[in-house]
Automatic annotation (TrEMBL):
Membrane-topology annotation of the record: Single-pass type II membrane protein
EC number(s) recorded for this UniProt protein: 2.4.1.68
Disulfide bond sites: 229-291, 237-255, 243-247, 491-498
Record protein name field: Alpha-(1,6)-fucosyltransferase
Record domain GT23: where: 231-519
Primary site of residence: Golgi
Motif (SH3-binding): 325-331
UniProt signal peptide: 1-24
Stretches assigned to the SH3 domain: 528-591
Catalytic activity as recorded in UniProt: N(4)-{beta-D-GlcNAc-(1->2)-alpha-D-Man-(1->3)-[beta-D-GlcNAc-(1->2)-alpha-D-Man-(1->6)]-beta-D-Man-(1->4)-beta-D-GlcNAc-(1->4)-beta-D-GlcNAc}-L-asparaginyl-[protein] + GDP-beta-L-fucose = an N(4)-{beta-D-GlcNAc-(1->2)-alpha-D-Man-(1->3)-[beta-D-GlcNAc-(1->2)-alpha-D-Man-(1->6)]-beta-D-Man-(1->4)-beta-D-GlcNAc-(1->4)-[alpha-L-Fuc-(1->6)]-beta-D-GlcNAc}-L-asparaginyl-[protein] + GDP + H(+)
Amino acid sequence: MKTTVKLGLTVSVLWLASLVFLSGTLFPHWEEGAGQGGEFKSGAALELNQLSKELHRMRRQNDELRKQAQQLRDLVEFRATDVEDNQALILQEKLAQANNILEKLNKDGIQRDSYRGDVAAEARYSCISNSPSVQQEKLLRRIHNGVVEIWYYLKAELQKVKMLSTSEKVKEKVDQMMEDAGHQQRSIIVDIYNLSRVDNKTIWRTKEAKSLSDLVQRRFQYLQNPTECNTAQKVVCNLNKGCGYGCQVHHVAYCMIVAYATQRTLILQSHGWRYAPEGWEKFFLPLSETCHDRRGSSTARWGSSMEKMAKTQVIDLPIVDGLNPRPDFLPLAIPEDLSERLRKLHGHPFVWWMGQVLKYILRPQPRLAKELELAGQRMGFQHPIVGVHVRRTDKVGTEASFHGIQEYMVHVEEYYLTLERTQRVQQRRVYLATDDASLLAEARRAYPQYVFISDNAISQSAGLASRYTENALLGVITDIHFLALSDYLVCTFSSQVCRVAYEIMQTYHPDASTFFHSLDDVYYFGGQNEHRQTALYEHKPRSRDEIALAPGDTVGVAGNHWDGYSKGRNHRLRVRNSGLYPSYKVEEVVEVAQMPTYPEVPLQVPSENSDDEIKVKSFL
């Protein structure tokens, strides 16, 4: 028991050491650039001054972390007085080693610079041009992810220590450590955010996001409105897939991706839709203004040879699960010609791409747009606000586990604690979307300090007996709309409604890839090609549950356990190739596929300089 406690405390010291390392090594090459004042002009001096302030703040955090490390050492010494064994001596040795790590990182961490030569030149150029370097953005996201993952790990391990310990003093100390470490973690998250903005990169990100979005939307408009419908190549998609609204939206999105990648106009067959017999256009604008007729000189189903399909005017699409052969442009791939810009702009390029697909196919009819506007006014929807989606009824016990409201509210609380480090929050608001009509009253009783915004009529219409009606459809559209408009999303990614909201959320921000917490799955697209990661660091398994990693290994992802570990399959290994590995030791593979570049659509148009820009509503 005591050994477990000591090991948990040792883990905590190493966590603190890692935070010191991060606080000392964020963008060190910028400091080098500060000494080359002749290369930075005008506003750059102010930007570097702000950066210097941020680094100074992080050094102060360094001192605080060292104090906490000393407290941990004192606690372990107290615990060790009653245990005269080799394990106590080993623990003291490990603590001494951790202290040496702290000393070394404090001494030379800020001087580390893995980006030399061309990369340093690119960083200097980026500072002048107000466009960040790819390396800078990639490193920023990696550090953010590392801080988040090590916080998951620390919380999970300390909870184990607390549960196993019989000492009230140790339990109290663990609670204090978690509280203090939480403050430090939130401070570093805010500092990372501030570092991303010190040189006015927000302006570049906003303009770049709008430029890319406008380009993609104009390509969709061009594709979907051929001058001659009779001779245009087409793909035909039947809306009535046997599933709920979120699943059907993703079905249409998959059809739109196939249409874009094959340069064929999408014909959506939606009459007799189980939600609205009049079809898709009852709520959303038609996908085309010029081409609605599926007829053509030749027709075939997908699955013929690629050569035959190329010569066929009209192709009927199956559901994504039945697509064979499976092309490389299926999710999670993005268009190759947009990939470099997207890697720089966004933390999850495919989710951005999917958001753009949904932005086009879900353009509301004027009546629906007015309904959504009035709903927001009626409910008092205001920022800041966290969207919480709780799916119960038919999903629990089949596709998802039961999660109490308290599990969601832990992450709502975490969001607001971080936000309050940057601004005054007068009222903590939650938009609650659920198919359980009793949950709103339960949430209000349990969390009176929060304002819960919800429409119980929507919850009631989402019940199994009335789910496939126009009222229920309007309800789920409304819920998704306000979940996507929220500043942060807490939900279960096993739910298609949650994933649709997350995808649409990307259209309201330059990069909202981190504006969520899922209680179960990582993000995925049903019927996707394999989700892959690449190993950054070596990992030697310490139990039969873990797998080995070597830098460069490709891992097929099964999921993230949100405790510092993920599960997957190492493609390199033939035996013991499936199991757990530390989440921070891998990075996502951005899948890229060759798709048409649509040279007929200009990259930029004068209207891109309008005031209709993506607004930044949140920072997390």
